[in-house]
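Hey L., structure's done. Input below.
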Amino acid sequence: MELSTLDYSLIIVFFAIVLGIGIYVSKKSGKSSTEYFLSGRTMPWWLLGLSMVATTFSTDTPNLVTDLVRTNGVSGNWGWWCFLLTGMLTVFVYAKLWRKSNVKTDLEFYELRYGGKAASFLRKFRAIYLGVFFNVITMASVTLAAIKIGGVMLGLEPWETVVAGGLITVIFSALGGFKGVVYSDFLLFFVAMAGAIGAAYYLVNIPEVGGIQAIMENENVKDKLSILPDFSDKKALITMLVIPLAVQWWSSWYPGGEPGGGGYIAQRMLAAKNENHAMGATFFFNIMHYALRPWPWILVALASLVIYPDVASIQEAFPNVAESKLGQDLAYSAMLTKLPSGLLGLVLASLVAAYMSTISTQLNWGSSYIVYDFYKQQINPGATEKQMVNVGRLSTVILMVLSAFLALALQNAMGVFNLLLSFGAGTGLIFILRWFWWRINAWSEITAMFSSGILAILLETTSLKGMLFNAETGIFPEWGELPFIMMVTSIIWLTATFVTQPETKDVLRSFYKKIQPGGPGWAKIIEEAKQDNVEIVESDQKWSVPSGITAMLLGVVLIYTIMFATGYWIYGKTNLALILTGVAAVSGFLLIRAWNKMKDNLL
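Output:
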């Protein structure tokens, strides 16, 4: 495939603008660690919301969606669509709590909520566990997608893609800090959306595909179109819909979909002007992330089944691609090779934008953990602002190098997705309850973290998986790995919670006084404080969770109906689309009323 001068010009101009943004804001970003990692906590909701969307618009996401659609149909996306529930819970319950905490990272929360050596260990260990281990795996997955795109579309060797994409990204990330990331995300969002929509429209209508009607009538596509799994297939229904919606969304930890908020989503909420802006940013992210953005990728994935019905056909069309990189996810890149000059340059720029946005966020977020939660806590408690910024920049470079090397060894985006889900299985409920139940302690989190990680490794590296889940000889033949890890991990951490000592009265009272979470889960602590004549409850305090859950449910209905309606409009199923559009309008009206009532109680 040959790129024209126009294609190269679009890509070069894009690179120059992004690098220029990093250089432009570098001076102000380097003034202090708060500026470098949180931009002084002055960000408006719309800019943070766009940044969240751009960050999750990574190069591996269209590859993952393509893999899911080609393997399990459109309904295979419920494996991540289910996280809308925790996203809405974060918007209407946890966003204001995070912003009120005023911590610099979500890991600093540990020493606000818990006390003693266990809390200190948890904060420092997770700084490395999440900031380095998980972060490097996530970035490697994104880089793997870039390698596949570079190999198929440009004929680049893996190391050439890694060097070309990583070098510019790490330079502007290290220089510009969080402000550089957010400002560039504003540009990256629009470039990425234009590229994805433009590619989908063109590829669906090329002669080899024949348009949306031809796609829907194609024998390779017919059984892939349904947004919901086949209800007559009990196993598919349970694994693809029931478990994700009933269990997975609240019990699993996954980057960008953490129950109760966390990670780079929390970083943006903490950078917001106030609680209202934190809520607005997170809501905007969720409606774009789930309701609208997946459909261009889904359409390209369906179209790819017409031209490349299996992996063998992809291999035949691209014989130079290494066998270790072959998979269903490669079909997205294969389809993009059919784009014309100009649009090809825009789409390549959009993919570069997606890559840079995600990697830059992961680098800044991961280095914030290393600086605040490990370096300042463990290495140099008296570190100056300049030293923290310098360590942040150095760790940014190191994280990029580690992820690049790992990416060269990976093969499949879905495998990484499942691995990350397994490592976080069973821990999510803690992140939801720790704000509202006084009995949760540091040991709850420590045991959950280690048990889920150990179980995931054992199932992946030993014969235990076959012994437990084999259809003929297994102990749990009908179970998936995730439900099993969730159940065992939950039993372990609940047991640890009740056999270990609760946090001290001083720690619990201090946390309650600062956050004012409310609810029956704190009744014992409030009553004991009253008996000791210690005032920890604000006089006008109202428990906002019931109204928050009402708004959450309305938000879930709104976004899912928009998502379904969009699909049915595309499929030409007008009656269903009209009904769902009407439901979305009603739920949207009710949500606005509920949200306005909640805003009256916020800053």
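Residues 158-204 form the longest helix (47 residues). The chain is about 75% helix and 0% strand.

-- N.
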